[in-house]
Specification:
Layout: E1 4-7, H1 9-21, H2 24-43, E2 50-53, E3 56-61, E4 64-71, E5 76-84
Parallel strand pairs: 1-5
Antiparallel strand pairs: 2-3, 3-4, 4-5
């Protein structure tokens, strides 16, 4: 079963800041990572990431790392934070 992927507005703002600070090549890598993350998250929590605590997971898809919350009952994956990896 598929999950709905939701990005919190604060996570979208973090991603926008990362995007604006990136070079042309960096933006292509960020775009690819976002697509990969969204596709994998839609498949459910067993397909991506590592559990941090309870329903909070971390997903790394270079050059990005995202922190997500899993809502099994609602079949949702909520992106809470986005970080650019060094």
């Amino acid at each position: 079963m598929k999950y709905t992927v939701i990005w919190r507005p604060s996570a979208e703002e973090e991603l926008a800041g990362i995007w604006l600070d990136a070079s042309f090549i960096g933006r292509a890598r960020i775009r690819t990572a976002c697509h990969t993350i969204d596709s994998a998250l839609a498949l459910g929590p067993s397909h991506i990431g590592k559990t941090q605590s309870g329903e909070i997971r971390i997903v790394i898809c270079r050059p990005l790392a995202v922190i997500i919350e899993v809502s099994e009952q609602d079949r949702m994956m909520i992106v809470l934070k986005v970080h650019m990896l060094p």
